[in-house]
Specification:
This protein is an all-alpha fold and 147 residues long. The chain contains four helices and no strands. It has one domain (14-134). The protein binds zinc ion. Zinc ion binds at residues 8, 26, 28-29, 31-32, 45, 47-48, 50. Zinc ion (ZN) is lined by residues 8, 26, 28-29, 31-32, 45, 47-48, 50.
């Protein structure tokens, strides 16, 4: 049985929503996990009932992950590239292992942040979105969707 719907603790800014998503929390309420598996978001938030199945993060999280990994790995590659102490095989091995670890590390936070941004902006089936919901009249006020 679903819990009664009350106005959740909505984020006040896009940054707050994205930070919740990056942390793997529900961007709308922050009270439940956004992911049921590593990259698989829950269909609905158990706390606020937001439908997360409509997100379309697609290739953007891997793009963010690769972008961040490249920028963090560049100084390391420059440092070990100039070293004569390591063989070329060792340098390539270090780079490949570090790149794989960093990309895998960033993937879930990037997906959470992407889903949160889509929700905030009301993209796809998230319309009208978190920004519109946050600026809606509070509970009890005329025109409030919360009664
Ligand atoms: Zn929620």
């Amino acid at each position: 049985m679903l819990a009664p719907v009350t106005r959740p603790n909505l984020p006040e800014t896009a940054t707050a929503a994205i930070l919740r998503g990056v942390k793997g929390e529900c961007p709308r309420c922050g009270q439940a996990r956004l992911f049921r598996a590593w990259l698989k978001p829950v269909d609905h938030c158990p706390a606020c009932h937001q439908d997360w199945s409509v997100h379309q993060a697609d290739d953007f999280p891997p793009y963010i992950s690769i972008f961040l990994t490249g920028h963090l790995l560049a100084p390391v590659m420059i440092a070990i590239g100039g070293s004569d102490a390591l063989s070329m095989t060792a340098k390539i091995g270090i780079a490949m292992v570090l790149a794989a670890i960093l990309m895998l590390m960033f993937l879930q936070p990037a997906k959470g942040g992407t889903i949160a941004l889509q929700w905030w902006l009301g993209m796809h089936d998230f319309a009208p979105g978190g920004k519109a919901e946050t600026s809606a009249p509070p509970k009890g006020a005329p025109g409030s969707p919360w009664g």
